[in-house]
Design goal:
The structure holds 2 protein chains of 2 kinds. By secondary structure, chain A is α/β, with parallel strands linked by helices. Helix content of chain A is 29%, strand content 16%. By secondary structure, chain B is α/β, with parallel strands linked by helices. In chain B, strand 11, helix 12 and strand 12 form a beta-alpha-beta unit. Classes of the chains: A alpha/beta, B alpha/beta.
Amino acid sequence: MIKNSLFYGQMANEETNLFNRRANWNVEDALDEKYLEFLAPHSRSYFSRMRPLFSFEIKNLNGLNSFSHVLFRDGLVFLLRFFIRYPTPSGLKTKVMIQKDMAFVVPQAWRDHCYLYDTVLLSDINKNDDELKNETNLVVVLNLHENQEQECLKSLVAPEVEKRQNIYLLPYFNQMRGEDYLNYDRAENLMSLKELFSEKVTVINASDLSQLDGKDSVFINANPQQVFQSDSNVVHSFLRSGWKSPLIPRAKDSDFVVPLSPYHGMRLTQYELGTKLKDLETRLFKELNFPKGELFKSEPVVNRDLEDYFKVFYYSDDLLELAFQLGKRLFESKG
Amino acid sequence: MKIALIKKRDSSFWRSCQSITENLLKSYERFCAENKHQLEILSFKSGANTLESFDLAKKVSREQFDLVVWLDHYPHPAPFIKAFLNENGENSKGSGIPHFVFHLFGDFVLQAPLWLEVQCALDQNKENIPFSFICASEKQKLLVDSLLKDKGNYQSDVIPFPVDENIFNFKEEARLRLRKELELSEGETAIIYTGRLSHQKNIVDIIYGFSQYQKSFNPKAKLFFSGPMDDLGVPYLGKEALDGTFFFHWEEALAEHENLVKEKRIRYLGNLNHQELSELYCAGDVFASLSCHNDEDYGMSPAEALCCGLPCVLSDWGGYSSFKTYCPDEVKLIPVGPGETRHEPNRTAFVKGLVATENSHKSEARISHGLKGQEALSIEAVSKKLYSFYESHHKKNVSFPGFNEGFFKLCALFENNPKAPFRSPTGGFSLYYKELYRCYWSPLKSKGDS
């Protein structure tokens, strides 16, 4: 059972405050810098009783035992990589929270250690769903990664685009530094803007959001495949300001929710693999023999002594491709 | 007169400044229309970079304005002034130089290094340029004047930021309607806070003070908060907070008053637009704010509340103190003590202030109080203050005396440690900071005092 005392009370508050003093227990190294920068601004740290971090930031698994629980902000590729590094919890006592869509990635040995979370709107202060339908502005946060499936993006965003008068695109062209990632063929990403959206689109920057009335607007974080991150500070930032998203469900009274703002929070459940994810579980564990199968034996060694950003690699191209494939299937399974 | 008003094309990222600039513009438009002055609004994009400043300066020089008014808090006018002085060069001797007027906002101290650039540009020019600062409140004036060289009678002036009286005025029907919606019976006292909910706004002090007041004096009282939550820590001490930190402290404070939350005696209403805020002020019985924010040069929230006839209980800090001058009967000031890492409003005095403000609602009184507030703070009122200011200043043509040594020290503190300029070796506020902001927490001397 998920207890309130995990998140509230003096002991919990002390742990949370200690957790946030990262410099004291988890100094950022070149690997962290590389991927946090790549995922910025989604990866920006924020304060939460859930103690969010990316699993790649963990240098010493048993060091997490200082905390009763932590929350993984990972997308598929980082979560896959984590379970390759740590196929079993070993001496870990800490509860780990995983985004519920990623539940199929969790090896059997870990399932008792995990809770599942998703982001929800709180009912009291938010408009009801019928009122949400009338908002005239839609802001689409576009995360243009190389292999992102345009079809997934289109399926996610198109229904909402049709309903709204004004469409605004807030694009982040995430690109890692270094020759290994230089790719001049980015025209496809920009083509997606043309294909998905008609002329009624306005491209904006984050600083332009203050010109929009949050009460008359909704937003979508276009991250259908959740390859890199499942928990974004950009999303929290919108929600904290009172914006709504048609893709974020509303909490029910019976849900266990830890609020992050007056408007939204994280809903927690015990680990359970939904039926829609069973096919993905089969693909990963039975067909590919995750995490010990041949496909997973060529991951780069995690060397945290390397100070050279350009020499640090955390996952292979094969794992990344697998993550995109699984992400596509995950999105399609939601219907 | 031929007047140029310089402002940013898009509205500010800072919410209160959006209203301020818009309303100041309206006051100037009214002032110019009534006095047959020629007004031109010059806009620039958000950055006012060197090139844009250069083009703006050329235009101002070419058009031969009598008066150039800088209306925005951001960006800083330094690049424009430097470009203007450079453009005019030798021609700056004698006629053709307009009188520059700068409306100062709460970030004056934060922008000190940029004002130093202006000083250096003026020194190089070796010419007396007519230059005026307009502060939003008496205490801001004291702070700014404390950083100026004492050359003759030069002082900054005070003109409050205007409130749009067409939006913010008392309406009985709005009161009745919203009180019904908020489930407030007429006998219940509604205490209102609006504005940013943030560490330096001392929201937790309001909650604790309200709890004592409700328990000991007025069981029927309710407290309503409205405004965005933000995570500005204490920037001057280098205390940055992660996004979401304030909400954690808010939750912890409410957890200690769980029964009040359950009874809906403390409620958060979210972020409201101007119309909704006006209605909230109409529905309320008292406005309360204990802000000790270092940039609190004025206070749009209490100004708007006063124009709606809402009595105010305010910390005797920064811009808030001036409201007592404008509306002596409607404002109670709460003493503030200088602390090591935060300034502390007196909670006992706050409770007493709430008690002293209790009054059964009378519509006529609210309308009358609202008009009193508007007499001092409305767009119309400020346009008249602008008239008085320009009548006296334009004839005097006082040149800027420059900044004093204390200001140079201020700039050096920012240069050496931009993230924590006022941090003492022990981590609290430095002695320099306490001296600089002494005028903010000390009571204002009345005009009769020596």
